[in-house]
Amino acid sequence: MLLPLRRRGAAPATDPRAAVPARAATVVSLAAVGAVVAVEVLVPGGWDGLAWLPLAAGLLVGLPHGAVDHLVPAWRLHRRPARLAAFALGYAAPAAVAWLLFRAAPGPALAVFVLVSAGHFGSGETAFADLRAGRPVRRAALPAAVLGALVLLVPLVRGAREAAPVVAAAVPGSDGVLPPAVGTAVLVVVLPAAAALAVGLLLETRWPEAAEVGVLLVLVLVVPPLAAFGVWFGCWHSVRHVARVLAADPANAADLAAGRLAAPLRRFALAAALPTAAALVVLAVLWSAADGEGDLLATTLPLLAALTLPHVLVVAWLDRAPRAVPPGVVAR
Question: What is the residue range of 46's domain?
């Protein structure tokens, strides 16, 4: 049975700012995934023994994509001090809660972290597709769940052996081994659901979205799990999120409406530079202070979860907030 997709008939979005960054992000993400798949298929040995390279590169490349969360309220709340203060508190509180939960109950916290991340990844895909197609961003819970599970849970269960030391380090007393029945259930449910989603998109003549589901299926099934997640996170999810951020920044309206991308990218790079550098410094300190890889992972994962939860909430709010076309920007 095909997955139910969103209803047709919604009025098209009138904001042209997303078109240029969305096209660029699509090209970058497809080219990166194509390159990683080509190495695995065409080069003898593929990524055997080197899967950590695209994983590490992807994590580093993707690090800046959430670095401008602190600017979002100024774009949407018109710099009202009371609202900005409430936003800052609302950002810090979930981060503190996530960190405390991870320290108090690492097993359940890790499970929730994985599920929240999968939901965030999937909803990011459906929101990007809406913006690229000129549709208002709408909730698409089931397609988002399928896409999030495809890009996170499938690599996780396929790479369960490689992930076991990470899980064991994050959850004291655990061997980190995923029960085989869980991995089987994920593959049996998610892979047919993804295929059904692709067919449903084809029937709705949403060709780019259907093709991208096929590309992601090839990625997670052909490329080693660590490499697959690295390239997807760094060159697909993060790049497409940056495209959405560029379109949301009012300072970029005139440039994007005129088809100029270089200046918006410079603005983003400057805004993201300091938070990204701070995150790298923190990681370097943790690395130098860690007593081995296990201790580093046990320290880093709660911090990562603490940063991820407020980022997820900011992106969800960004999707729900109305996007007005600034004066002087002509809809096309």
Answer: 16-58+106-273
